From TrEMBL:
Organism: Leptospira terpstrae serovar Hualin str. LT 11-33 = ATCC 700639
Keywords assigned by UniProt, alphabetized: ATP-binding, Ligase, Nucleotide-binding
Species lineage: Bacteria, Pseudomonadati, Spirochaetota, Spirochaetia, Leptospirales
PANTHER family from the UniProt entry: D-ALANINE--D-ALANINE LIGASE, D-ALANINE--D-ALANINE LIGASE B
Protein family: Belongs to the D-alanine--D-alanine ligase family.
Domain of life assignment: Bacteria
Protein name, entry field: D-alanine--D-alanine ligase C-terminal domain protein
Keyword Lipid metabolism: no
UniProt EC number: 6.3.2.4
Length: 337
C-alpha cells in the first residue's frame, strides 16, 4: 500500500507591523520580533506559516485559496489598523465571508467591544458592575460626572491617548485636556477617577465552554496606566498574582458571564479596577496582544503552568472548532464550498 498523504494545515499571520517610525496610533501593532517568534513557534506545532502584512496582499491571498481547501487554512487575526471603529473586524469579516477559519471572536464582537461606552452600557444593564460613564463627541460639552474624573479615547487600546493629565480634578481644567485629545480621538469617554489597583484576567474558549486564567493585579509607575507603560520601548508594568481568593472568584464569575453575554470566541482579556473594595469592569479587549515579550495574555496563561506554545496551539484549535460548528459561517460555506 502506498503512503497516505495528509495536507498540512496553514496558518496565515495577518498583521500590522510596528517599528520606531510608526506614529503613536500604531502602538497596538505587533513588532517584527513578536511575529517571527510566533511563526517559529507555530511551525514547531506542525503547521505551515505565512506572514502577510499588507491589505492588498491579505485580501488577494485569501480570495485565491481554492474553496475546497479553505477549511485547512486559518488566519491569525493581528490586524489593528487605526481610526476606524470596525478596524479589528476587518479580518474576521473577510474570513467569515470567504469561509476561512480565523482565530478570535467574530466581526460583531470585535466591533462592539472596541466601543467602550456601548460595551459598558450593555454589560451594566445585565449585572456586570461598571462605573458611570459619559460619551463625549464635542469637547465643548461639559462632563456631568462628579470630579475627579478620567477622560480617555472611547475606541482605543494599549493606553493610546492616556497620560497623567487625563485625570481632571476641576472643571477649569476640562478644556485644556478635552480639546487637544478630541483632535486625534473624536469619540471620548469620561468616567469617575478610580484610585484603586487595576486587575486583568483572560477568558479562553468558545461559547458554552469557557475557562479563565488566574487574575493578576497590574502594577505600574505613577497613578495612571499610560501609553508610556504600554510602549514597546519601555514596557514597565508588572503582574502580581497574589489576588485574594474571594476577589479572584468574583473576577472569574464576572469574566465568564461577560464572555457568554458577548458570545466571544477564542480569547478575550478583561480589565477591572478596584475602588473602596468594589470591583468595576473597565473594558474588554477582543484582540489582545500575543507577544511573548510585552503582552499580558501570555503571562496570564503561563501562570496556569502551560507554555506559550500550548497557548498558540489551543487558540488555533479553538479557531478551527468555531469554523466547524458556529452558524455564522454557514452562508459562506453554502456559497463558497
Amino acid at each position: 500500500m502506498g503512503e497516505i498523504w495528509i495536507m498540512k494545515r496553514t496558518v496565515i499571520l495577518a498583521c500590522d507591523l510596528y517599528d520606531n517610525k510608526t506614529p503613536e496610533l500604531c502602538q497596538e501593532w505587533e513588532s517584527e520580533e513578536t511575529i517571527r517568534h510566533m511563526e517559529e513557534t507555530i511551525q514547531k506545532l506542525g503547521y505551515d506559516v505565512t506572514i502577510l502584512s499588507h491589505p492588498t496582499e491579505i485580501t488577494s491571498v485569501l480570495s485565491n485559496i481554492p474553496p475546497q481547501t479553505r477549511k485547512d487554512w486559518i488566519v491569525w487575526n493581528l490586524v489593528e489598523g487605526y481610526h476606524s471603529p470596525s478596524r479589528e473586524a476587518y479580518i474576521p469579516a473577510l474570513c467569515e465571508y470567504l469561509a476561512i477559519p480565523h482565530t478570535g471572536s467574530s466581526a460583531a464582537v470585535q466591533t462592539f467591544t472596541l466601543d467602550k461606552y456601548k460595551t459598558k452600557l450593555f454589560l451594566k444593564s445585565l449585572g456586570i458592575p461598571t462605573a458611570d460613564s459619559q460619551l463625549i463627541l464635542n469637547p465643548m460639552d461639559l462632563p456631568k460626572i462628579n470630579f475627579p474624573i478620567f477622560i480617555k479615547p472611547n475606541g482605543e487600546g494599549s493606553s493610546l491617548g492616556i497620560g497623567e493629565n487625563n485625570r481632571i480634578d476641576r472643571i477649569e481644567d476640562w478644556s485644556s485636556v478635552a480639546i487637544p485629545l478630541s483632535e486625534t480621538f473624536p469619540s471620548l469617554l469620561v468616567e469617575p477617577f478610580l484610585s484603586g489597583r487595576e486587575l486583568t484576567i483572560a477568558v479562553l474558549g468558545n461559547q458554552g465552554n469557557y475557562q479563565t486564567t488566574p487574575p493578576a493585579f497590574v502594577d505600574y509607575p505613577g497613578s495612571v496606566y499610560s501609553n508610556l507603560v504600554k510602549s514597546k520601548e519601555s514596557f514597565v508594568e508588572s503582574l502580581d498574582f497574589q489576588v485574594p481568593h474571594a476577589l479572584s472568584n468574583l473576577l472569574h464569575s464576572y469574566s465568564l458571564k461577560v464572555a457568554e453575554l458577548l458570545g466571544s470566541a477564542g480569547y478575550i482579556r478583561l480589565d477591572f479596577k478596584l475602588e473602596k473594595e468594589e470591583v468595576y469592569l473597565l473594558e474588554v479587549n477582543a484582540t489582545p496582544g500575543f507577544s511573548s515579550i510585552y503582552s499580558t495574555l501570555p503571562l496570564l496563561w503561563e501562570k496556569t503552568g502551560k507554555s506559550y506554545s500550548e497557548l498558540l496551539n489551543f487558540c488555533l484549535e479553538l479557531g478551527f472548532e468555531e469554523f466547524n460548528h458556529h452558524f455564522r459561517y454557514q452562508y459562506a460555506k453554502d456559497r463558497n464550498l
